# Entry
Amino acid sequence: ETSYGKGSVQQIIDLSAGGTLKVTIARWFTPNDKNIDKEGIKPDQEVKISDQDIKNGVDPQIDAAKAYLK
# Structure
């Protein structure tokens, strides 16, 4: 499943007059310099996690990540 596609980082600044200002302070890019905003990232390997996994305290996504990094 492709990620959400939130490609920017905002910071909220409280103003002395009582308002707030939301400012974009960073943007996310892939190693190939592609902006992910509104597109997201498709995983190289998708590992499903079921309700039963969660109930049993099993995390096949972490297990797959550990196996990949070995």
User: Anything to note?
Assistant: Residues 12 and 18 are 13 Å apart (CA to CA). The mean pLDDT is 94. Residues 60-69 form the longest helix (10 residues).
